[in-house]
């Protein structure tokens, strides 16, 4: 009997343990699934956007204008940076890189402004954005930039870099940066608050032509919509970006014009953004198949750049530069008189 009792006790204990284990496993499994579900929900870039068939979409179009005197380019002395003798390719001939940041076309049209519709819950298809930059002659260029957007040919047929160009990205997405230069660069991505770095990857010289050699994931803080990309070795290598969460956005070309179509009828907040300026926001109501004309105006006198980035003259005079840095092959384009 004792044996039977013991066996019964053991069996019962085992059964209880098995049941407890099953309960534990089920409990842990459910917790894990819930945890993963929450993570996936939080990570999903499209959590708040639903693609639908838009039959009677509206159009918002207009122009982004920069009013007032075009801000002066920023000045960086090549003597202050490593591999400056390579980066002299983009110098102004006096050992400096002039970083132009405002390209204004006919009628004051501002290039590279991002116009976007906020908080759109559903609408036209949202093609995935795969942001990629190339580094060429000590500059970041969005890979989709055309030759005309990247370069200007002078009267001698010499090509000069345009700069900067803004890139549109999504949150929680990978970016790729490809270094085409024979020198080491570095990609640092900052949120709009300086010092808050969200990506930092080295960019060694390419091991083979066309090879991808840098990049990573971008995860922005809550409510953060803009970023600045800087090379850790060459501060004058800068680019900017804007985060979108729906397909209703437009990055302006040299004319400053934008056109956003197939927007479901409703009332929306429309934002125009450009680096160094406070965004401009307007509210519009669009009706089925309607068109709304909307212009945005930025005031050039309100451009805010950190003091150390806004100097018109660098502290090291050209005659103090090593002779090597004074040479140049492709002087940076000087802004034509307007
Ligand atoms: Cu660099």
The fraction of residues in strands falls at: 25-35%
Structural class: alpha+beta
CATH class of the largest domain: Mainly Beta
Major sheet characteristics: 5 strands, mixed
Please give the radius of gyration in angstroms.
27 Å
Report the helical percentage. 10-25%
- CATH-defined architecture of the largest domain: Sandwich
CATH homologous superfamily (4th level) name of the largest domain: Cupredoxins -  blue copper proteins
DSSP summary: helix tally:
4
Distance between the termini: 107 Å
Work out the number of β strands: 23
Low-confidence stretches: 1-19, 33-46, 321-338
> What number of structural domains do the residues give?
2
Give the overall silhouette. globular
Give a written overview of the molecule.
By secondary structure, the chain is α+β, with helices and mostly antiparallel strands. The protein has two domains: 1-43; 50-325, Cupredoxins -  blue copper proteins (Immunoglobulin-like). The chain has four helices and 23 strands. The protein has helices at residues 2-43, 84-87, 147-150, 323-326, and strands spanning 50-51, 58-67, 74-77, 96-99, 114-117, 122-123, 132-135, 140-142, 151-153, 159-161, 166-169, 173-179, 185-191, 197-203, 215-218, 226-230, 238-243, 249-251, 257-263, 266-273, 280-286, 291-293, 296-299. It has a five-stranded mixed β-sheet with strand order 11-17-16-13-14, with no helix packed on it. Strands 2, 19, 22 and 23 form a four-stranded mixed β-sheet that branches. Strand 16 and strand 17 (238-243) form a beta hairpin. The longest helix has 42 residues, at 2-43. Residues 1-19, 33-46 and 321-338 have low confidence and may be disordered. Copper (II) ion is lined by residues 138, 185, 231, 233-234, 237. The site of copper (II) ion has 6 residues, from loops.
């Amino acid at each position: 009997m004792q044996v039977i009792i013991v066996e019964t006790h053991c069996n019962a204990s085992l059964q209880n343990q098995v049941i407890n284990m099953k309960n534990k496993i089920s409990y842990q499994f459910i917790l894990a699934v819930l945890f993963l579900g929450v993570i996936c929900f939080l990570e999903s870039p499209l959590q708040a956007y639903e693609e639908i068939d838009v039959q009677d979409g509206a159009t918002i179009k207009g122009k982004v204008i920069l009013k007032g005197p075009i801000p002066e380019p920023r000045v960086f002395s090549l003597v202050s940076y490593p591999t400056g003798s390579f980066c002299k390719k983009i110098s102004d001939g006096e050992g400096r890189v002039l970083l132009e940041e405002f390209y204004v076309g006919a009628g004051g049209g501002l290039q590279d402004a991002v116009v976007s519709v906020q908080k759109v819950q559903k609408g036209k298809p949202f093609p995935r954005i795969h942001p990629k930059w190339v580094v060429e002659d000590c500059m970041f260029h969005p890979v989709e930039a055309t030759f005309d957007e990247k370069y200007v040919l002078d009267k001698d047929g010499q090509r000069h870099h345009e700069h900067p160009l803004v890139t549109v990205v999504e949150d929680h997405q990978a970016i790729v940066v490809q270094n085409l230069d024979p020198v080491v660069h570095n990609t640092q991505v900052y949120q709009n608050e300086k010092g808050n770095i969200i990506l930092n990857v080295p960019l060694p010289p390419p091991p083979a032509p066309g090879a991808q050699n840098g990049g990573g994931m971008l995860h922005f803080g809550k409510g953060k919509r803009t970023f600045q990309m800087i090379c850790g070795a060459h501060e004058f290598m800068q680019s900017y970006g804007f985060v979108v969460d729906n397909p209703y956005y437009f990055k302006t070309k040299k004319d400053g014009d934008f056109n956003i179509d197939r927007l479901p009828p409703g009332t929306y907040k429309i934002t125009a953004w450009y680096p160094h300026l406070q965004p401009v926001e307007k509210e519009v109501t669009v009706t089925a198949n309607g068109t709304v004309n909307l212009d945005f105006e930025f005031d050039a006198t309100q451009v805010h750049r950190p003091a150390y980035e806004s100097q018109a003259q660098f502290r090291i005079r050209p005659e103090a530069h090593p002779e090597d840095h004074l040479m140049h092959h492709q002087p940076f384009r000087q802004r034509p008189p307007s």
